[in-house]
Specification:
seven-stranded mixed β-sheet, globular
């Protein structure tokens, strides 16, 4: 298990960090869209394959991929699953639609431009929701978590693959130094698990470091029967 649970969340860190908003994320991924597969496809492939393999083992056909990007994961899902992908970037979605058409992925039921913090889906629309390399991209990861919990049925599954901040050492210094560049990068280099959920409140079923060198971690949990009052009220 990766030792990332106690890394400080955003409110506890004392260094400069540029805030993200929907427009800055759109602009960053408009720039990345044409080269994303080449630049990030390889290094992120291990975590992506591990996350989809976990989804493929779970019960329930209705799958939501949050932050589907260029659709790199779409060919990996079992063909009997009904997959819907959402993303904030229109340019990334166009690449995903091209991939669905070229690989004839009939199980992909929709690719929608949508804000992950304010989804248009009804409550309990899915059995599983997975967010790969997305939690550190959205402006407020706890809102992402609340929305994913809302649209997944009680007892369903939430999965995340993400880079989480180190507790110390050289990597921590690099993440700290890069934090002010968040808006330009389109993601938070110093993102911690506590920025997504409270480990003391939310029971994590599985945490697994992914190659290369454990840079990314797979986090899996079962959706609770009801959201905590504070999150449900937001």
């Amino acid at each position: 298990m990766a030792d990332i649970g106690m890394a400080k969340g955003a409110e506890e860190r004392g260094h400069a960090r540029a805030a993200l908003d929907a427009d800055s994320v759109r602009e960053a991924y408009r720039r990345w869209a044409g080269v994303y597969d080449t630049v990030f496809g390889g290094v992120s492939g291990f975590g992506r394959r591990r996350a989809v393999a976990a989804v493929n083992r779970l019960a329930g056909p209705r799958v939501l991929e949050v932050g589907v990007g260029t659709g790199l994961a779409l060919p990996l899902y079992r063909r009997d699953l009904q997959v819907v992908g959402i993303d904030l970037s229109r340019e990334m979605l166009e690449k995903a639609k091209e991939r669905v058409a070229s690989e004839r992925l009939a199980n992909v039921r929709g690719l929608l431009e949508m804000d992950a913090e304010h989804m248009a889906f009804a409550d309990e629309s899915f059995d599983i929701a997975v967010a790969m390399f997305t939690a550190s991209v959205v402006p407020d990861a706890k809102k992402l978590f609340a929305e994913m919990s809302r649209v997944v049925r009680p007892g369903g599954h939430l999965l995340f693959v993400n880079h989480f901040a180190a507790e110390g050492g050289p990597r921590w210094w690099v993440e700290r130094a890069m934090a002010p560049l968040s808006r330009r990068l389109g993601w938070h280099p110093d993102f911690a698990l506590r920025d997504l959920l409270d480990p003391e409140v939310t029971a994590v079923e599985r945490m697994e470091p992914c190659p290369p060198a454990g840079i990314f971690t797979l986090v899996q949990l079962r959706n609770p029967d009801a959201l905590p009052q504070a999150l449900a009220a937001e």
